[in-house]
């Protein structure tokens, strides 16, 4: 029975009325409320449709924009008839576009990566195979092309629920795997890539674009990545609403979606998860840009210079101050013989072919590695400016930094140098590429000797090349530069002296001799080089040629001869591109900014202004030295090892690269560091993977235990283990675990052994939880 009576507490003008439904009293909205709710729902639906259009427009603009490309290259694709077709593949965030040609005029199809899984596929043929597939055997193809095409270009039939790809080599295949992993895990990166794409076309693998993003802009934090993932999930969810045919069902789903959005957009039970856990911030890296200037190449013509008449008077006035055998480090040289860059910058010329070291780290045999190291060593000499030029003497405390991107391995080689001493002039440097598994450290003492009609520039010092995963160190020396014809004849520059490359662990040894041109020698005797390669006491190969052109190696066992190094035009054009810091973002003591006025005057051929600007820097350095007095100079990035008497980079990280934990290597304010994954637990506890901090704690704990009595403290710990709370027992167990690495503390009780095993099980469980969380997040 329906009762429709006004309540005594209500007036006839009330906005709602009370009715009885099956004996239960409920409020029934008035016509005014119904109209307002209908208008509100109408506005919400209009906003909903506009948001859909905006998201669709953004996606289509990203698909059409040629600059928004993570990676693009030729790949072979297997069709339904098990035959292979070579097609052009362009990977964009969230989609893989397939064309017949790189011109993107003939669209074949678009794969929606959000519905795909990626797996490596074994193959008997050459190359590298991988497979994209839908786990439920559903279609992975989009129904329209990037320009609205309904029908793709005619090609062999392709499967609907999977595709098998073949790359030309394993390295190319790994690059594609990495790029697809990124596109699968975060398909909304097109928003970021579109911004970066305005600077130019980026056509490289995912990690290369990520490194370039780090080098050119601010970093992307884990929080932003999670927000982007949530945006994509919600965006896909909204797009699926059009699948409802029934109006009431669609409205009910809209109400559910509104409720979900009020709860933060989470549509599962995980919406109740605590969102207050702190996420590790992404790396704040230095912004690098590609350097446009080019270097000329060595050769007899570039090593000869005729002094102009206006500069001959300056040379004679300079020579009057010199005596044979005199050190030139304290002599002020005229600016017309200066190369417009610092000596710290000059030392970086040896790393334009650092990709050869990446290849050397992968060589299986010790002989193969030292051959590749020798090839890289020879690659550093053919680049030089035309004429006889000397770089600036660095100011005390001056620094220089740059890097090279490796497109083949998706890594980056960083170079850091600092002038750590002025008298004597010592330059320290550090080069590192942890992902490719090598680092180089060393220091150079630059000396100059005057011999009357000639002078020599001697680079006294050693470079130590370390292959991180093999723990192999190669000690390398440098030749000297010899300039003759100062008083009479033509001024000519040559390299001379004997150099060595030696690895104590593998017993590999290389000796090279840079030969000066003999008095009666012809053009073929210029820039000659010869050498030998030993493994132990056995001579395996000899080397000869010209260090500025082709160098041959003769294998003793096989009797064959092959080219070890040849800086051909193809090699020169394919060398790595150097990235530098823009001058307005450099520190006051960075080389380019420090010498910018001298460089500007030299480029303008204004020798007077160049001399004045150079005098200003030198006088400021003298004034600073007087104010410092007897206080020793403390370099910012390097420290002096009193044991080895060598300069060492303060932030050196010699750990092998761990792809499970290491994300990307970057540099900030001269500090080369690695951004690593961190374990995050629900209760907010974080577990750091910083090896250096763990080692520091271990050493401090060991030192404390030894200082307080060692064995007595150890025995005291065991005595009270069973009477203390469980937390103290675990702490004592950790102390005992640290004691295992201290000589004399190898013995432990049975209970400690059990607790050590328990801790090992806990650590294994933590690692498993971490992996599970990463899978969930992915």
Automatic annotation (TrEMBL):
It comes from the Eukaryota. SUPFAM superfamilies: Oxysterol-binding protein-like, PH domain-like. InterPro entries: OSBP_sf (IPR037239), Oxysterol-bd (IPR000648), Oxysterol-bd_CS (IPR018494), PH-like_dom_sf (IPR011993), PH_domain (IPR001849). GO terms for molecular function: cholesterol binding. GO terms for cellular component: cortical endoplasmic reticulum; cytosol; endoplasmic reticulum membrane. Residues 1-15 have a biased composition (Polar residues). It is a single-pass membrane protein. GO terms for biological process: lipid transport. Residues 68-185 form the PH domain. It is found in: Endoplasmic reticulum membrane. Residues 1-41, 243-283 are annotated as: Disordered. The keyword Transport applies. SMART domains: PH. Keywords: Endoplasmic reticulum, Lipid transport, Lipid-binding, Membrane, Phosphoprotein, Transmembrane, Transmembrane helix, Transport. Belongs to the OSBP family. PANTHER family: OXYSTEROL-BINDING PROTEIN-RELATED, OXYSTEROL-BINDING PROTEIN-RELATED PROTEIN 5. This is Oxysterol-binding protein. It comes from Amphiprion ocellaris (Clown anemonefish).
């Amino acid at each position: 029975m329906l009762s429709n009576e006004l309540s005594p507490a209500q007036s006839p003008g009330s906005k709602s009325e009370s009715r009885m439904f099956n004996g239960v009293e409920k409020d029934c909205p008035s016509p005014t409320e119904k109209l307002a709710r209908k208008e509100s729902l109408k506005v919400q639906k209009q906003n909903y449709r506009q948001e859909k259009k905006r998201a669709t427009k953004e996606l289509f603009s990203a698909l059409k924009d040629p600059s928004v490309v993570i990676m693009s290259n030729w790949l072979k694709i297997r069709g339904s008839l098990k035959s292979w077709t070579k097609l052009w593949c362009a990977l964009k965030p969230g989609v893989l576009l397939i064309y017949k040609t790189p011109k993107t005029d003939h669209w074949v199809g678009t794969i929606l990566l959000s519905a795909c899984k990626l797996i490596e596929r074994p193959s008997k043929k050459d190359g590298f195979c991988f497979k994209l597939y839908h786990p439920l055997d559903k279609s992975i193809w989009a129904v329209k092309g990037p320009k609205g095409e309904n029908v793709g270009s005619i090609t062999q039939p392709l499967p609907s629920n999977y595709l098998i790809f073949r790359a030309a080599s394993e390295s190319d295949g790994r690059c594609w795997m990495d790029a697809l992993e990124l596109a699968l895990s975060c398909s909304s990166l097109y928003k970021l890539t579109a911004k970066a794409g305005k600077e130019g076309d980026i056509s490289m693998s995912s990690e290369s674009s990520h490194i370039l993003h780090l080098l050119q802009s601010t970093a992307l934090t884990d929080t932003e990545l999670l927000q982007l993932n949530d945006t994509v999930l919600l965006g896909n969810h909204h797009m699926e609403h059009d699948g409802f045919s029934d109006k009431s069902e669609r409205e009910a789903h809209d109400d559910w979606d509104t409720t979900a959005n009020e709860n933060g957009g989470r549509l599962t039970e995980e919406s109740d998860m605590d969102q207050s856990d702190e996420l590790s911030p992404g790396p704040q890296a230095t912004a690098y840009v590609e350097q446009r200037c080019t270097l000329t190449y060595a050769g007899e013509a570039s090593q000869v210079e005729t002094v102009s008449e206006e500069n001959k008077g300056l040379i004679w006035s300079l020579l009057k101050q010199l005596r044979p055998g005199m050190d030139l480090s304290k002599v002020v040289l005229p600016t017309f013989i200066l190369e417009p860059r610092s000596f710290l910058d000059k030392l970086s010329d040896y790393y334009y072919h650092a990709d050869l070291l990446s290849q050397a780290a992968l060589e299986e045999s010790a002989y193969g590695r030292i051959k590749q190291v020798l090839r890289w060593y020879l690659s550093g000499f053919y680049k030089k400016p035309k004429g006889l030029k000397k770089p600036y003497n660095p100011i005390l405390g001056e620094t220089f930094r740059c890097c090279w991107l490796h497109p083949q391995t998706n890594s980056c080689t960083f170079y850091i140098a600092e002038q750590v001493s002025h008298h004597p002039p010592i330059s320290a440097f550090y080069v590192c590429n942890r992902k490719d598994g090598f680092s180089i450290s060393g220091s150079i003492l630059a000396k100059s000797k005057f011999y009357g009609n000639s002078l020599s520039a001697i680079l006294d010092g050693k470079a130590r090349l370390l292959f991180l995963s093999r723990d192999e160190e190669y000690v390398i020396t440098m030749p000297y530069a010899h300039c003759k014809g100062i008083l009479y004849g033509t001024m000519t520059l040559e390299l001379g002296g004997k150099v060595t490359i030696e690895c104590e662990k593998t017993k590999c040894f290389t000796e090279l001799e840079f030969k000066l041109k003999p008095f009666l020698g012809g053009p073929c005797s210029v820039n000659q080089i010869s050498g030998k390669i030993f493994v132990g006491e056995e001579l395996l190969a000899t080397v000869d040629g010209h260090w500025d052109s082709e160098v041959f190696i003769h294998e003793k066992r096989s009797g064959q001869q092959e080219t070890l190094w040849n800086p051909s035009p193809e090699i020169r054009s394919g060398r790595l591109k150097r990235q530098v810091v823009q001058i307005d973002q450099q520190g006051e003591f960075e080389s380019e900014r420090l010498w910018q006025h001298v460089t500007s005057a030299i480029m303008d051929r204004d020798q007077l202004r160049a001399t004045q600007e150079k005098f200003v820097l030198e006088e400021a350095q003298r004034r600073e030295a007087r104010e410092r007095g007897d206080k020793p100079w403390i370099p910012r990035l390097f420290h002096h090892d009193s044991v080895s008497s060598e300069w060492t980079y303060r932030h050196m990280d010699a750990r092998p690269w761990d792809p499970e934990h290491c994300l990307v290597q970057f540099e900030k304010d001269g500090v080369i560091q690695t951004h690593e994954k961190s374990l995050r637990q629900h209760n907010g506890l974080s577990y750091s993977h910083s090896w250096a901090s763990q080692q520091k704690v271990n050493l401090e704990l060991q030192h404390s235990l030894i200082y307080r009595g060692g064995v007595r403290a150890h025995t005291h710990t065991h005595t009270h283990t069973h009477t203390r709370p469980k937390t103290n027992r675990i702490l004592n167990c950790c102390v005992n675990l640290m004691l295992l690495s201290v000589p004399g503390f190898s013995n432990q009780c049975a209970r400690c052994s059990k607790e050590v095993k328990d801790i090992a099980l806990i650590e294994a469980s933590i690692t498993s939880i971490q992996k599970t969380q990463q899978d969930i997040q992915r």
